[in-house]
Amino acid sequence: MAQQNRTFLPLNIAVLTVSDSRTAADDSSGDYLVDALTEAGHRLADRALLADNLFRIRAQVSQWIADEGVQVVLVNGGTGFNEQNRVPEAVGVLFERTVQGFGELFRQLSFAEIKGSAMQSRALAGLANKTLICCLPGSTGACRLGWEQLIRDQLDARTQPCNFVSHL
Question: What is the pTM of this model?
Answer without folding.
Answer: 0.94
